[in-house]
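User: My advisor, Dr. K., asked me to get a structural model of this assembly before our group meeting. I'm new to this, so sorry if the format is off. These are the inputs:
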Amino acid sequence: MRLKRKIKKTLLFALKKSIPIAFGYIFLGIAFGVLLQEAGYGVLWAFGGSLFIYAGSMQFVMIPLLIAGAPLVTVAVMTFLINSRHIFYGLGFIDTFRRMGFKYPYMVLSLTDETYAVLSTCKYPADVDKDRAMFFIALFNHCWWITGSVLGVMVGTMIPFDLTGIDFCMTALFVVLFINQMKQSASRIPAFIGFCSSIFFLLLLGPANFILPSLSFTVLILAILKERLEKMEAGVA
Amino acid sequence: MAIGVWDAIAIFAVIAVVTWITRALPFALFGNKKAVPKLISYLGKVLPGAIMATLVIYCLRLIDLTEFPFGLAELLSVIVVAAIHIWKRNIFWSISSGTLCYMILIRTVFAL
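Assistant: The format is fine. Below is the predicted structure of the whole assembly, which you can bring to the meeting.
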């Protein structure tokens, strides 16, 4: 019985952590569904796309590629360039995810920007099963995204009010999680480096190409500063 | 649908597989080692702060500072989110008030 109560607590905890994502994913999903439907694709396509691809910005880019029937090589290269930032997300979760058994592949493949942001700032209370909580946060987020895109195809064009600007909730989410991250971490230097590097490369290379060079440069600088930053962290703790 | 069903399925499949590769890469490289290299576990610890800062800039990447409204709606709304979050510490309040602020600003003060 105690086990059952722990699972219930864990589920509620995961749900609470995924609610801020629900807001964004459902509305962005609807926006994606509407565009997909306008391109001539129905519910099954929205469901399949959001289930298997599950990458927000790439799914928006996919629509013109579908309409134009872009060559598969182009599709592959664009997907890689847009999603290359994901390469860096797994680095902090290798030990955590690989002990999760059958959930391991799902955790790896469902690591979106938002799930990464929530999981890497989340603090787990003692009465919550941490591995299960992480799994359910990832799963709930995925469900919101699928729900949104399917809704978008089915009823998106019937929404009576103008939702322009609702996508700002994702920016707001990252601002909030950035502040939480600042509060928890021993040093603000990594955030400062990430901030300067992304602004520098954005101004240098423009919005379409800056993220991979920026993150690579950030990783390089952080690697160079390893000893100094580890000393600071030890000093605080 | 402008293209055939199988062509569309091929596009969906390529996007899915390439996305999976980007997510699985760090695990493929280091997931089978007995102990994760020290440099990698160090990076895993310091990267979230840097990545969160990068994601905020990523979300704001399309604002144009040279033309009206100079990204002011976004910048003001980010300040609202940050201020309310530091004050109230409630993620729901921070996100909804910031988003509402943004949606109002682009319809009124900064309407094109």
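One thing worth pointing out at the meeting: Chain B touches chain A through 66 residues (CB under 8 Å).

User: Perfect, thanks a lot.
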